[in-house]
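User: Fold this; tokens only.

Assistant: Input:
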Amino acid sequence: MTCNNDWDELQEIIVGTADYCNIPIPNISTLKCQYPEFEEEYIKSVAGFYPQQIIDEQNEDLEVLSNTLKSLGVKVHRPNTQYAEANTQSPTWKGKNWHYYSPRDLTLIIDDKIIETPSPIWNRQFETWGYRDIFTQMFREGCTWLKAPIPLLFDKNYKEDTNGVPALNNEEILFEAANCVRVNDDILYQISNTGNRLGGEWLQRILGSKYKVHIVEGLYSYAHLDSTIVPVREGLVLYNASRVNIDNEPELFKSWDKIWINECVGETTAPAGLPWGASEWIGMNFLSVNPNLAIVDKKQIEIHEKLNAVGIETIPLELRHDRLLAGGFHCVTLDLKRKRAS
């Protein structure tokens, strides 16, 4: 049972759900890490569950994604949402659970290891409970199951001024799994609003000398890597041309062939005055089924054309509210098993 990259033949996966997706009542962690460009009073005014039409439409699209994967022979799991409306707290914070829409965000699958990561956001501390039954079965099948130290999340973890710079101090081990890109025995780790340097150091120590964690910063301060750098297959990487250039690209990919994406198409007007959860670059967020097949947002014509040009077939699907809910096809899935080519 292995899963060391994002392009080997996909065998088993989790697909998230839009049920219970919401904007949390603002707290220091959500304001600094998720909504740094918005005023607290504005976020407070729109907090709560998203309109039911948005939830229903996104669930329809997730169901199409699930059925497409099943038709390709992939085993699909879905989250258990029984704790979705629970109030949660620790000695230092309290808040409601956020969502089970993006299983990629908080769990890192490396080889036969399940690694639950320590989000800097209060409302995400119990999110992986939605996948607990799945992980328990994987453990029974032989996986190693690890959880990073549960963070205290004191206010001193968050910088006062986060204008254009990563929001986190190095007080605790903090990072989300989607700050990482797996490239076999190499892990690219981004310092951003959702990952600090201590997180990368913890990951390196846990993984040991078999793996090399490459810590990068200065690419993009907002959140996750999969709207910036997407390895397509061995020796080929797709770059967000607005963030990556030949001067700042990671050393890991300097010898690889590159696909530069100049623009992504996305919703332009947020419904009902709601805040965007992600930029239009969420359209780069595609899911590889194998080295020659990928599921790509049907709006992203440039990505389809450039992948097709290098011999990769694309399946055009949609997530109508990917930008609003902050998750494209890579975010809303978590690959559990991939078969490495012999």
